[in-house]
Amino acid sequence: MPIPSAIRAVFFDAVGTLIHPTPSAPEVYAHVAARFGLVLSAAEIRTRFLAAFRAEEAVDRAANWVTSEGREEARWRRIVAETLPGVRDAEACFRELYEHYARPDAWVVDPTAASVFAELRSRGLILGLASNYDHRLEAVVEGHAELRTLRPHVVISSRVGHRKPSPDFFAEVVGAVGMSPGEALLVGDDFENDYLGARAVGMGAVLLDPNNRNPEVGDRIRTLPELAQEMAH
């Protein structure tokens, strides 16, 4: 998987690439739901959550991926409502879950991230973060030393008005470093939003595929350290 020599900046997706919820989202939802009078298994919650999440993705697709802080809160409100039907005090339940994911301790950073960042920077590369998220990610970034090093170049969908895979989102990404698309690379775990979205605008793209879900993709890695190894070639 050769990395183009023209690459001068590397952006990373956040959720699923650099950060992971801990405990898992279904476990957190199950725990909170039980306190609000609804008992569901983590497995059932996962099924309902994925269906609700996909429905909101379809809404955003129909809207050409336009977003805002208000839209992001509304989409999560609907996801929680569909995932946890019948809880007592639905607003309080939603608010607790929504605020939970603004807490740095709700997330664990990939333990190899700091060394990968250091290796890439040693080669003169500029690093950044490019995420479909909202203002809550800023608090998460502040709470993790590894992520704080990316602060000069953080692009969040709710802040720029478009979500991946919109070309407008990726225009903001390359604009953040003042480069052409061919000089920037995105590393992410989502085949459509990250990999295809970046490639569609002429950016480099690497798919993080730890579970080998997309073996047909040539530009993919199983772990983050593989990226540093490939960029050494």
TrEMBL record:
It is an enzyme of class 3 (hydrolase). Its EC number is 3.1.3.18. GO terms for molecular function: phosphoglycolate phosphatase activity. SUPFAM superfamilies: HAD-like (SSF56784). The lineage of its organism: Bacteria, Pseudomonadati, Planctomycetota, Planctomycetia, Gemmatales. This is Phosphoglycolate phosphatase. Transmembrane segments: none annotated. InterPro entries: HAD-like_sf, HAD-SF_hydro_IA, HAD-SF_hydro_IA_REG-2-like_cap, HAD_sf. Keywords: Hydrolase. It comes from the Bacteria.
